[in-house]
Amino acid sequence: MTAAAKPLAFDDIHTQKKQQQLTQMMHSIAAKVRGMPNANSTRSACPVCAHAPVDFFVNAFGFEMSQCGDCGLIFCNPYPSLAQLDVYYNSEMKSFENEFFRESFDKRINIFLPRIELIQRYGGKGRLLDIGSAIGIFPEALKRAGAPFHLTCCDLSVDACAELKQRYPDTDVICGNVLDMAVDEPFDVVTLWDTVEHIVDLDALLKKLRGLCAPDGLLVFSTPNTHSFEWMVAGHQHVQILPPGHVNLLNPRCIQHLLPRNGFALVDLLTLNASLDISYVQKLMAQKKVDDHRLGVFLNEALADEQFCTMLSSYLVEKRMAGNMVVVARPA
Ligand SMILES: [Zn+2]
Description:
Shape: globular
Low-confidence stretches: none
Oligomer: single chain
CATH class: Alpha Beta
CATH architecture: 3-Layer(aba) Sandwich
Number of helices: 13
Distance between the termini: 39 Å
Bound molecules: zinc ion
Strand content: 15-25%
CATH topology: Rossmann fold
Number of domains: 1
C-alpha cells in the first residue's frame, strides 16, 4: 500500500495542536461576540423547510443551536448579526485556522483531488470560481492535478487574498463578500469548500450563485453532513458544532429543499471520506465519549439498508464474527 492510498484519518487533518487549542480559543472569542447586541430574533420555524416548532439541540459556546424535526437542519438560533460575524471573522480565530490549515496542507490536498476528478467527470471545464479559498489548498490541488481551469478565487480575508495572489499569479483574486460580487460573465464552474455552513442566509447565497453560474455550468460545494455515521454517533458533542462560525449544519434533505427553490437541480450527492468518520468515531470511543445509545442511532438506520447489510455480512464472514460456527477437524 502506498502512502497516498492510506485512508485519511481525523488526526491527519485536525492536528493535535488545533484540537488542544480550538475549544479554549472558541470560548474566549464567543464570549466577546455574545456580549454584542444582536437584533435577530429567535426563530420558531425552520429557515429551510418552514416546519414549526423547532427543537432545542444544544448550547455551544453560549450560543443556542436548534434542530428541525422535519428536514433535520441544525442552526444557530438566533442567527448572529452581521456585526457579530464581522468581529468573529476578524478575530485571532482566522489566523489560528489558517495556521492549522498550513500544518495539514498536504493531507488536505488529498481531500481535494477526488473532488477535482468529480468536477471533471461531470464535464466541468473553463472558468472556475472558488468561493472561500482561504490560504489556497484547492488552488494548489488544481495545480498538482494539472486541471486546466482558469481560476478566480473569492475570499473575505485580506491576508488570504494577498497570499493567494502571491502564490498563484495567474489566478484572479476577488477580495470581498460573494453576495456583493458583480456578475460580468458567468462562470462554468462555481465551488465552495466547507463554506456554506458559515453562511446565515442560504437562499440569498444560492440565488447569488445561480447568477454567477453559466446556464450549462456546475455548482459544486461541500459541507458537513449531519445525517452520517460520525454525526449520529457524536450527536451534541460533535467537533463541528462551532457557533457563531458554523451557523447552518445541513444534510441531504435540506439540500433537496434549498436547491430547487433557488434555481438549481440536484445532479449528484456523494460523501467521499468515510475513513474520517470511522477514525473520528474511534477517537471518541477511545476517549469514552460514545454512549451505546448513540451508536445504536446509527445502526438502527443502517441495518434497514440492504447494501449495509450485504457489506456487514461479508465483513462478519471474513472476520469469523458471524453467529454460527462450523468446525472442521482432522485427527492429529
Ligand atoms: Zn426543516
